[in-house]
Design brief:
The chain is an alpha+beta fold. The protein has helices at about 1-20, 40-45, 145-175; strands at about 25-35, 65-70, 80, 90-100, 100-110, 115-125, 130-140. Helices cover about 35% and strands about 35% of the residues.
């Protein structure tokens, strides 16, 4: 019995050590190829009002409250949402955009937990008339609990990004 307890204690210590030493930085990248002009895709990416057409989270709360401020595509414009526990509350602020190349955002979550990250949606020619769109999110885990949950959260967000990019592809190819 005592060998089991020692083994359990060692396993717990190794688990805690793994979490404590885990890098506090995270990065999630997903890409998709879209048969559309860069300008068409870029226009969708920089317009927060079009996010509802391809966001993987909109379906989780059709009653979500949304606020848009600033000129479409302008630095400092933002999209604020507040919804149920699945979508929480947060703000996306446009930091910079490069015509037909990419959009840089600051993402702030207020609930269900506070965190901040940067997001980049980039558009690059694929050489066959289509474009490769990449969704990247970078940030720091705000605490040990977030570091412990990182593998699960990264996997879940990666799936959300894949779904969002598939929806973006369908939306942009329909518009092409």
């Amino acid at each position: 019995m005592s060998i089991w307890l020692v083994g359990l204690g060692v396993a717990a210590a190794v688990g805690v050590l793994a979490v404590v030493t885990r890098d506090e930085n995270f990065r999630i990248d997903r890409s998709v190829r879209i048969k559309s002009k860069a300008g068409t895709i870029f226009a969708v990416l920089r317009d927060f009002r079009q996010f509802e057409h391809w966001s993987p989270w909109e379906k989780h709360d059709p009653q979500m409250q949304k606020t848009f401020e600033g000129e479409t595509g302008a630095t400092g414009s933002y999209y604020h949402w507040s919804g149920n526990k699945q979508v929480g509350e947060g703000t996306m602020t446009l930091l910079d955009s490069q015509e037909n190349e990419g959009v840089d955002l600051r993402l702030e979550f207020y609930r269900p937990f506070a965190s901040q990250a940067t997001v980049r949606w980039s558009v690059a020619p694929a050489g066959d008339g289509s474009q490769v769109v990449t969704w990247t999110m970078k940030g720091k885990h705000p605490n040990l609990m977030a570091k412990a949950a990182a593998p699960m959260v990264n996997s879940m967000l990666g799936k959300n990004f894949d779904e969002g990019l598939a929806r973006l592809k369908a939306h942009c190819e329909k518009s092409a």
